Amino acid sequence: PLSSSSAASDVYKRQGIHRLVENAGVDFVLLDMEHSGFGIDKLSDLLSFFSGTDVTAVVRVPIPKDYTYIARIMDSGAQGIMAPNVKNPEEAKFVLDSMKYTPKGRRGLAFSRAHSQYLGPSDLKGFMEQANHNSVFIAQIESKEGVDNVEEIAAIDGVDVLWIGHFDLSSDLGIVGQFHHPIFMDAIKKVVAAGKKYNKGLGIQPNSALEAKEWINLGFNIVSWGADSVVYQNALMIGVDLLRSSLA
After folding, report:
1. What is the pLDDT of residue 226?
2. pTM for the full model?
């Protein structure tokens, strides 16, 4: 099945965004800390809003090698982590160690926080097992090194999704923005093959409906329909153009 999302970056930082996203029928939202001004305080508010919906809230951390960011974000109520530019299995394992409880990781224990609904679980072992099972890890492949190592990354138990960061990947390959270039196509086909081999989700954020169709046909089954700023701007431009044409 195809899973869809939207990405929240800078535009909608207040109450209501969780209902707008839920009403649109998406499955999950990406809250972006890599390319936005989100801090932990604002992020915690957004995670609290989304906790009252059926939309899964995943946070993209600024870097994949910072335990503090990952663990604090999980304690703030995130249901998953997207790590940018994962280049090798060691980086993927570091993220898993930071977001998962023992025995699958080394995440520190703190309860009566957002991630436990501000309750102290009576069954700590059961809570930790459930938290490990329910949290999702999305590894972004955004470099030639990441593509070269994608088989080893995909083979790791706990890596749930391989996600192509298409702009950064094309840039690292020396063909920035050329998404039909044979070098780029070969790279994403290698990622798709690794994902299918190890039964991982395959994610990407297309720039248009046509691009979405092309990439879905290649095997991508998790699609983010644009950043909030782009979705809002495009909808506004279409509406304004229609209004002006009706008045012409």
Report:
1. 81
2. 0.91
